[in-house]
Amino acid sequence: MRTDTGQIVHLADYRPTDFVLERVDLTFELDPTNTKVEARLIFHRREGVDPSVPLVLDGDELTLSGLLIDQSEAPASRYDATPESLTIRDLPAETPFEVTVTTFINPEANSQLMGLYRTSGVYCTQCEAEGFRRITYFPDRPDVLAPYTITIIADKAANPVMLSNGNFLGGGDYDEGRHFAAWFDPHPKPAYLFALVAGDLGVVEDTFTTMSGRDVKLRIYVEHGKEPRAAYAMDALKRSMKWDEERFGREYDLDIFMIVAVSDFNMGAMENKGLNVFNDKYVLADPETATDQDYANIEAIIAHEYFHNWTGNRITCRDWFQLCLKEGLTVYRDHEFSADQRSRAVKRVAEVRHLKSEQFPEDAGPLAHPVRPTKYREINNFYTTTVYEKGSEVTRMIATLLGSKDFKAGMDLYFERHDGQAVTVEDYLKCFEDASGRDLEQFSLWYHQAGTPLVTASSSYDQKKGTFTLSLEQMLPATPGQSNKEPMHIPLSLALILDNGQIAAPTAVKGGEMTGDVLHLTERKQTFTFSGISSRPVLSLNRSFSAPINLHFDQTPADLAHIARHDTDLFARWQALTDLAMPNLMQAARDAREGREITCDPALTAALLEAAGDEALEPAFRAQVLTLPSEADIARELGGNNDPDAIHAGRHAILSAIAREGNKTFLRLFDEMKIAGPYAPDAASAGKRALRNSALAYLTYAEGTPARAAQAFAAADNMTDLAQALTLLAHRFPDSAEAQGALDTFLKRFDGNALVIDKWFSIQATIPGAGALARVKALMENPRFVSTNPNRVRSLIGTFAFGNPTGFNRPDGEGYRFLAEQILSIDPKNPQLAARILTSMRSWRSLEPQRADHARSALATIERAETLSTDVRDIVERMLK
Ligand code: ARG
Ligand code: ZN
Predict the structure, then answer these.
(1) What residue's CA is closest to ligand 1, atom 5?
(2) pLDDT tier, 673 (very low <50, low <70, confident <90, very high otherwise)
(3) Going by DSSP bridges, is the β-strand pair 316-317/422-423 parallel, antiparallel, or unpaired?
(4) Active site residue 441
(5) Cα of 60 from ligand 2 centre, angstroms
(6) What is the 3-state secondary structure (H, E, C) of 665-734?
(7) 259 CA to middle of ligand 2, Å?
(8) pLDDT of residue 94
(9) From the CB of 305, is ligand 1 less than 6 Å away?
(10) Which one of 225, 249, 409, 698 has the largest count of C-beta atoms within 10 Å of its C-beta?
(11) Is the beta carbon of 128 within 6 A of some atom in ligand 1?
């Protein structure tokens, strides 16, 4: 493990390299424990750089075993090699010159899963962000771009497949038992996009004809026997390629595009040029083993990585501070893709749910940082939902402010102007300014100021004048390192809904700019007046979630119900129902805490049941309506001094009340939404299943017995229904014979299928209540628990910490102490994984004092540990600050 070096990197310190890398030639002689890497690098000195300036290459846990300069051995006096760097002096005055570095590395011993490692006997790489320096000494930064030629030599029997970036040059027999393969990637790229895969893998093949008529070979590599489970991923890939041509005018640029699925992977997937490497969770699917959510994730992540080919690879980041340039934009692109492939409104609801449950807490806690940070200690800790999801929302707001035509012109200009370059957020914004003529100076604060803006709204209507007045005030909370903030440019989509359900068209708007249905809030306080409004309207504000803000607007239940019934923006209808539910859920939590009786507002039940039963609405949307805000959502709204047990009890009571009241509706939906015929993963069928399973959950609440869920479990013919029924049984009736029987049946049926067994672990890790910890500890003793496999660790320990509020936040603090122990045991093997799971405690300060005290001491235990990775040290120190 690389222990903490404590060095903070600042954006302000950026300067270009002294040497320009022209070409890279790498030769790998693969061996499980002793792989030889020979790197031939051709550099020239940048103009104006003094010849005495040394060349400094990055390393990480490396030992130098050979160094040639212009093909002759370098005397020891000319270089210094440490595990972290190689400094070469007295370089030839005549440039270009060639440096040949030889290193030996041990893939088998690489448990960090960064650099070159082994997974199920397959060689595989992960180089983003700084993994390449674990392979060879190199200028490992994203603004160093070069074409790569790769030669792989390995045992032929064990490694029939040998892949790298670019196009295949050729291959053949090498020496006793070994063969070789050569690849050339003509597109200059930074080292983080390098990839190599070798091993014995099965393959699924297809082709895609691009818009200019070129045939591209498509290949997805999986473990032997799993080929049929890659069919959906292949289909998603072809749809992604087509969509990027149609929507963004982007064509693929190599002869071949490959995806490799591996079972040990720290993140979701990686966009290496022409050779994406995936966590197999986001490739493999069939009806028997994958849920509708799994299918949707596969579609989104296949698209995401493919879209990176232009947003990330052809145009990359100048430095890691610009990460959102590729990630935020690419998330925006994959969101748009899924919205076009599925239902836009339902997709938007799911996105906003995710944003609010993951990004908003990050932005409100000790780990808050701007979308474009200005300093970091460990870059791996900045692959955050702020950079990704808020980054995507920022691009969405640009599209909203500019309108689709100017937004497209800005994107086109970006691709044209910066193709082949490593650029900054400023370069990106300039393209939209130049294409639209709009000044984005104030808007750019979204990249620089952390925190979720709070917008407070109040309104009044003047019948005599026919005017509607809206007063808005924005406030951006203080975040670590940023106490004083400037007002932001906030685009707010709105509608004034009249009594008859029609949307009013004001004759004039005063007080600020309005384009289409979008109001531009640019000042701290601003009052807008709409004239020509004939009767008192109901205001629907921040429709489609046009800005990622918290909105305080006291609307009556009647007004919210009016929006829920009439807005033409479906997202706003869902939002209104959520706004109706939230005060109820918050009050229920307070009542539960004080031991008071809990009541559910009949207006809420009526509005929910009306929407749920509305056949004009698609089932997927109705299912979203019936999914009330989560316990974490309620905790966030309550804001502090939280008691997770009371929140759980309050929510439970509200759900039960709705279940009793809506019994007839749920019985009908459970019946009507049944799908005859074989499973298909399309969005419409998935929506019906979601609505039916939601009805099943309410029925189970009302009935209070496991019978109906047990029946559903027995009758299920697909993983969506099966996992849903199992979750209901285990979560609602954990001690029943039905739950135990179903868990056993499930295990027997899917034993050996790692991705399904992950679900078995997760479902048990999230059983509510104080007993969860004992269950999690027992499951860790199960031989199926593999502590080196990130998916398995996340499915049990990660899911427990992130997804079981009552189980994890036990009042006695045992959950936190357990997590601290686990972090300390994972960290030496896989720091990235440890740091990621530790962020589950990011909201510890909003707990009630007793729990918060326990949480603080558990964090302090971690902080006191003698050896910690930079990853974990960075997170724990920021959390305690
Ligand atoms: N660029 C990858 C993506 O598509 C994520 C890789 C992150 N890897 C890491 N070690 N931090 O989102
Ligand atoms: Zn990405």
Answers:
(1) 270
(2) very high
(3) parallel
(4) no
(5) 24
(6) HHHHHHHHCCCCCCCCCCHHHHHHHHHHHHHHHHHHHHHCCCHHHHHHHHHCCCHHHHHHHHHHHHHHCC
(7) 15
(8) 79
(9) yes
(10) 698
(11) yes
Alpha-carbon torsion angle 134, 140, 145, 149, nearest 10: -20
Instruction: Supply the residue whose CA is at minimum distance from atom 1 of ligand 1.
Output: 270
Q: Is residue 139 within 8 Å of 21, Cβ to Cβ?
A: yes
Per-residue pLDDT of 688-709, as tens digits, reads: 999 999 999 999 999 999 999 9
HEC string of 371-401 equals: CCCCEECCHHHHCCHHHHHHHHHHHHHHHHH
Closest approach atom of ligand 1 to CA 270: 2
Average pLDDT over residues 160-166: 99
Active-site residue, from 128, 130, 299, 305: 305
Instruction: Tell me the chain's radius of gyration from C-alpha atoms.
Output: 28
Residues 194/198/204/206 CA torsion (nearest 10 deg): 40
- 427 to each of 146, 154, 250, 265, 411, how far by Cα in Å? 21, 43, 20, 33, 12
Helix (H, G, I), strand (E, B) or coil at 91: coil
Is-contact 533 466, C-beta < 8 A? yes
For 97-134, write each residue's pLDDT tens digit.
Answer: 999 999 999 999 999 999 999 999 999 999 999 999 99
Rounded Cα distance between 323 and 389, Å, is 12
For ion ligand 2, residues whose CB falls within 5 Å = 327, 330
In terms of phi and psi (left: phi > 0; alpha: psi -120 to 50; beta: otherwise), the region of 87 is: beta
Instruction: Provide CB contacts within 8 A for 826, sequence distance 6+.
Output: 787, 793, 797, 833, 834, 837
Q: Is 834 helix (H, G, I), strand (E, B) or coil?
A: helix
Ligand nearest to the CA of 392: 2
Specify the amino acid at residue 634.
I
Strand order in the sheet with 538-541: 514-515, 518-521, 490-497, 538-541
Ligand 1: centre distance to CA 224 (Å): 26
Model pLDDT for residues 441-468, shown as the tens digit of each residue:
999 999 999 999 999 999 999 999 999 9
Stretch 755-773: mean pLDDT, rounded?
98
* Angle of CA points 336, 342, 344, to nearest 5°: 55
- How much is the average pLDDT of 166-195? 98
What's the 78 CA to ligand 2 centre distance in angstroms?
40
Tally helices (H) and strands (E) across the chain.
29, 33
Nearest to 506 by CA among 492, 521, 494, 496: 496
Q: Omega into 129 within 30° of 0, i.e. cis?
A: yes
Ligand 1 close to Cβ of residue 267 (< 6 A): yes
Residue 32 near residue 105 (C-beta atoms within 8 A): no
Q: Which of 73, 66, 57 is nearest to 101 (CA)?
A: 66
The percentage of the chain sitting over the pLDDT mark of 70, rounded to a whole number, equals 99
What global pTM score does this model have?
0.98
Summarised one tens digit per residue, pLDDT across range 37-96 is 999 999 999 999 999 999 999 999 999 999 999 999 999 999 999 999 999 999 998 789
Ligand 1 lined by 129 (C-beta under 6 Å) = yes
Half-sphere exposure of 490 (CA within 13 A, CB side): 29
- Angstrom CA distances, 730 to 607, 631, 650, 651, stand at 30, 18, 20, 18
The string of DSSP codes covering 227-271 is: GGGGHHHHHHHHHHHHHHHHHH-----SSEEEEEEES--SSSEE-
